[in-house]
Specification:
By secondary structure, the chain is of the alpha/beta class. Helix content is 43%, strand content 13%. The strands form four sheets. The protein has an eight-stranded parallel β-sheet. Strands 13-14-15 form a three-stranded parallel β-sheet, covered by helices on one side.
């Protein structure tokens, strides 16, 4: 059995201090990483012939990565994100280096840790490291990769980040709720294996369409993710602050846990020189100051297109500000991939469609036994049209492989139905 990696001796102490800071005052994180790395024009040799794999720079050009962290700490941010957005199975597998997950994760965290400690010592202001866990390039909900495979890979990712000195784990830019869950569970398993508890932050990405990439509304994301024990939920990437406002308003009214926001510098404008992000530093600072006041944010920062100057002005406006007290009024409910359904209905009862139950419906059972999966899905859709609020799914039948049947049908129902699924076994 391979031995577990070791942690820096003061990991828990730093993590506890960060948790206390997030609970009492506004903490400021950094901004864009990738564009600042690319601006230093690394060579193909720096990339080890893996063009565009920024995470390889953690081992070949730590000086470049270090310089980005230094630029952000120099303008006064409280914490920086590690250069590990792509140290996950799906992204690294595209370069045929999936086995370097732990190595690159640990190296990225170690660089950020060293810079954070230097600034802590020189300024007397505690600086922290957020271990970035990106979404990868495969969507498990659509069958691109299995949940178990990426969950286990995210555990390795998180163990590397913690071993390198991360003070928190940031599951960020998530686009698929099943991928998000795999990241969170992988991070939790890493903490359990290493005997440490650090803040676990989850940041989802809502597109200009008003939903996540696969169509999930912010309410579905909150209902699905908050029960997993995350310490904070928020938004990052895809849009600027203007497009995030209503989603933050929903979170402020319904989330029981602290909130974060790391927007892009506006919506990108395509030019001959590539994408240009138009939001100025004062405009980002104005927006974040408003969000802190109106929505009670605990963690703010920037994403694509934001620079040290953007964050310098955010720091001037909000760092150290007491968190605006919220009084959330969450409504209990269940979520599908697409929407949340409150347990309290306008009608006098909640209707759970029972026709997709192998024990209660002969028609459904026969379709299942004959592997007529499309017919099974159509039966679910019939119940949606007839007004069901949720769908019961039971595949239990003597002599059948219930696990295989449930995987087949639950996966199909998740994308074919907008309703929450009641797994009945």
């Amino acid at each position: 059995m391979a031995s577990l990696p070791t942690l820096p001796a003061d990991t828990q102490t730093r993590a506890d201090a960060l948790r206390e800071a997030l609970a009492t005052r506004v903490v400021v994180a950094d901004g864009a990483m990738g564009t600042m790395l690319q601006a230093q024009d690394p060579t193909m040799e720096d990339f080890q012939q893996l063009e565009g794999c920024n995470e390889v720079l953690n081992v070949t050009r730590p000086d470049i990565v270090r310089s980005v962290h230094e630029a952000y700490f120099s303008v006064g941010v409280d914490c920086v994100e590690t250069n590990t957005f792509g140290t996950n199975y799906a992204a690294l597998a595209e370069y045929d280096i999936a086995e370097r997950n732990f190595e690159l994760s640990e190296a990225g965290a170690r660089i950020a840790r060293q810079v954070a400690d230097e600034f802590t010592a020189s300024t007397g202001q505690q600086r922290w490291v957020l271990g970035s866990m990106g979404p990868g390039t495969k969507l498990p909900t659509l069958g691109h990769i299995t949940y178990a495979q990426i969950r286990d890979a995210y555990q390795i990712n998180a163990e590397g980040l913690l071993s390198g000195g991360a003070d928190a784990l940031l599951v960020e830019t998530t686009q698929d709720l099943l991928q998000t869950k795999s990241s969170i569970i992988g991070a939790r398993r890493a903490m359990e294996a290493l005997g440490v508890t650090v803040p676990l932050i989850c940041s989802v990405t809502v597109e200009t369409t008003g939903t996540m990439l696969l169509g999930s509304e912010i309410g579905a994301a909150l209902t699905a993710l908050e029960p997993l024990g995350i310490d904070m939920i928020g938004l990052n990437c895809a849009t600027g602050p203007a497009e995030m406002s209503e989603h933050l308003r929903y979170l402020a009214r319904n989330a029981r846990i602290p909130l974060s926001c790391m927007p892009n510098a506006g919506l990108p404008v395509l030019t001959k020189q590539g994408a240009h992000y138009p939001l100025t530093a004062p405009e980002l600072a104005d927006a974040q100051e408003t969000f802190v006041r109106e929505y009670g944010l605990s963690l703010v920062g920037g994403c694509c297109g934001t620079t040290p100057e953007h964050l310098r002005q955010v720091v001037e406006r909000v760092r150290g500000t007491a968190i605006t007290e919220r009084t959330p009024r969450p409504e209990p409910g269940a979520a599908s991939l697409y929407q949340t359904v409150p347990f309290r209905q306008d009608t006098s009862y909640m209707a759970i469609g029972e026709r997709t139950n192998a024990n209660g419906s002969k028609k459904f059972r026969e379709a299942m036994l004959e592997a007529r999966w499309d017919d099974c899905v159509e039966m679910a859709r019939d119940q949606i049209r007839e007004g069901a609020h949720m769908l019961d799914l039971c595949v239990d039948y003597v002599g059948r492989d219930g696990v295989a049947d449930m995987e087949e049908l639950a996966g199909r129902f998740a994308t074919a139905s907008t309703l929450p699924i009641v797994l009945d076994s």
